[in-house]
Design brief:
Layout (H helix, E strand, L loop, with lengths): L12 H10 L7 H21 L1 H4 L4 E5 L5 E3 H17 L2 E6 L6 E2 L7 E9 L10 E9 L10 H4 L6 E9 L3 E6 L4 E7 L4 E6 L10 E3 L10 H12 L3 E2 L5 H11 L2 E4 L12 H14 L3 E3 L19 E4 L1 H9 L3
Parallel strand pairs: 3-5, 11-12, 11-13
Antiparallel strand pairs: 1-2, 3-4, 5-6, 6-7, 7-8, 8-9, 9-10, 13-15, 14-15
Helix pairs in contact: 1-2, 2-4, 6-9
The structure holds 6-O-phosphono-alpha-D-fructofuranose.
Family: Belongs to the FBPase class 1 family.
Organism: Echinicola pacifica
Protein name: Fructose-1,6-bisphosphatase class 1
Length: 329
């Protein structure tokens, strides 16, 4: 018999955010509002992505971002949508976006939070209809409300994150986030314009059959990684690599697996960015009983030196990360 789908109707993300807020009597609703601002922007971006091929916005702009990477129209659209939603929500004093060289001043010096965001990661996959994602982190500012924000506000270790999460624009659009009390996943129902709780209390399996890596730089990987990869092959594990970080991360989070982006000749410090890619995913991984390291230490404990810093990134099932660590020389 067809199992009747018990649609978790009623547990919308808005209600969920509100419930979490009531669990913190001192909460004044500022973080709740901030999260709602991110939810709103994600709905707009989901719609833009789902019709990109029709509206001709899946292509390139004439611009390059300051990393020297060609900017796609949707990179710019996502950056504008998320930053303007956060500015309108008035809960954030400043924003660091992967798409911008400098810090964005929101004009709300009284606000007590800062947001670090990769508005659209993996966007080179859009025009071939492969899933892409948004990655975000929320921190309390160190500088005092009312004063100017400082770089120090943005160079906090990942352990200081108040909230972290991602939106995966995939077969369905999902928002997965944590405020330090476990990881919950919400699936977007476009016809209702609502996210519903679909993956409560996500925990990452301790082990998995998947390892996600681009091996084109294999010759210059650290020996620790080369030895680990040989053990994966010996154990007959499967490679699964979409080339879209949020996609690879999310699959491994639910099914078990490990994602590896090591340092190499091409990327001396790895390719991925500590502040707006790795820290948020590392918090999600750890909150889901997984693990994230730079090869030797937890990602979340790294003291950032500058805001576009890259790190080697290994994240996934705790036993697989332990195995990788076991090969460190
Ligand atoms: P490579 C996309 O550009 C990205 O930042 C991640 O989304 C993805 O996992 C990685 O880079 C892919 O990098 O070197 O394998 O193309």
């Amino acid at each position: 018999s067809i199992q009747s789908f018990s649609y978790p109707v009623g547990t919308t993300i808005d209600r969920f955010i509100g419930q979490r807020q009531t669990e913190h009597p001192t909460a004044k609703g500022e973080l709740s509002q901030l999260l709602r601002d991110i939810v709103l922007a994600s709905k707009i971006i989901s719609r833009e992505i789902n019709r990109a091929g029709l509206s001709g916005i899946d292509g390139m702009t004439e611009e390059e971002n300051f990393h020297g990477e060609k900017q796609r129209m949707l990179d710019v659209i996502a950056d504008v949508r998320f930053t303007s939603a956060l500015i309108k929500g008035e809960q954030v004093c400043a924003i660091l976006s992967e798409e911008r060289e400098g810090i964005i001043d929101t004009g709300h010096p009284e606000a007590k939070y800062i947001v670090i965001i990769d508005p659209l990661d993996g966007s080179s996959n859009i025009d071939v209809n492969i899933s892409v994602g948004t990655i975000f982190s929320v921190y309390r500012r160190i500088s005092k409300p009312g004063e100017a924000f400082t770089m120090e506000d943005f160079l906090q270790a990942g352990t200081a994150q108040v909230a972290a999460g991602y939106i995966l624009y995939g077969a369905s659009t999902m928002l997965v986030y944590t405020t330090g009390d476990g990881v919950n996943g919400f699936t977007y129902e476009p016809s209702l314009g609502e996210y519903f709780l679909s993956h409560p209390k996500i925990t990452q399996p301790e082990s998995g059959d998947y390892y996600s890596i681009n091996e084109n730089q294999r010759e210059s990987f650290p020996d620790q990684v080369k030895t680990y990869l040989s053990s994966c092959k010996k154990d007959n594990l499967n490679t699964r690599y979409v080339g879209s970080l949020v996609c690879d991360f999310h699959r491994n989070l639910l099914k078990g697996g490990i994602y590896l982006y090591p340092s190499s000749e091409q990327y001396q410090d790895g390719k991925l960015r500590l502040l707006y890619e790795c820290n948020a995913l590392a918090m999600i991984a750890e909150q889901a009983s997984g693990s994230s390291i730079d090869g030797s230490q937890p990602i979340l404990r790294i003291q950032p030196e500058w805001h576009h810093q890259r790190v080697p990134f290994f994240t996934g099932s705790s036993n697989m990360i332990k195995d990788l660590l076991g090969f460190s020389t």
